[in-house]
Each structure stands twice: as C-alpha cells, then as structure tokens.
User: Which sequence fits this backbone?
C-alpha cells in the first residue's frame, strides 16, 4: 500500500541520503535530490513528484559547478545508474516498489 500524500514528506526525509528540499503542494509532493558523481565539479539534480499513487521524475539536470552550466537530461535519465538509484530509494520509501 503506497504512503499517503500527507505522509510522503516525512517518508522521504527519513531516507539515508535525504533530499535537499521536500515540499507539499495541495495534490502532490516534490523532493529535490542532489547526487554527487566521481567528478567533484559535477552533480545531478533530481526532482521527483509524488501524487499519492505514483512517483514521477519531474526533472533531471547535470550541474557543472565551475564554470556554472546546466544540462537538462530529463528525457534521457533511464539507464543512468546514479539517477535510477535515487528514484528507487524514493519509490521504496513511498512503498511503491
């Protein structure tokens, strides 16, 4: 049984690798994860959206810190192990998997 929308924020905040931000907006909850890579100058920003029934990946970006550059890979995140790990941890916390 999936976690109720009202409890989603608390469930996501209990993850070992916690999201940087969790917000609840009326009919959905959103969480922002920042996942490091082997390059200390690059990290992933992963935004997930939970509507009480399913978890959706709203946005995935590669962030290059110096010089600042953003690359949107939302349409191509599947197969990226770092992103899939974050999504799977969130699904498990919300009792979807």
Assistant:
């Amino acid at each position: 049984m999936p976690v109720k929308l009202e409890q989603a924020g608390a469930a996501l905040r209990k993850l070992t690798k916690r999201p940087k931000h969790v917000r609840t907006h009326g009919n959905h909850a959103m969480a922002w994860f920042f996942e490091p890579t082997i390059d200390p100058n690059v990290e992933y920003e992963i935004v997930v959206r939970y509507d009480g029934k399913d978890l959706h990946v709203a946005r995935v970006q590669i962030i290059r810190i110096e010089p600042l550059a953003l690359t949107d890979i939302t349409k191509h995140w599947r197969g990226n192990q770092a992103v899939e790990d974050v999504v799977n941890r969130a699904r498990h916390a919300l009792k979807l998997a």
Summary: Residues 81-93 form the longest helix (13 residues). Residues 5-93 form one domain. The two ends are 10 Å apart (CA to CA).
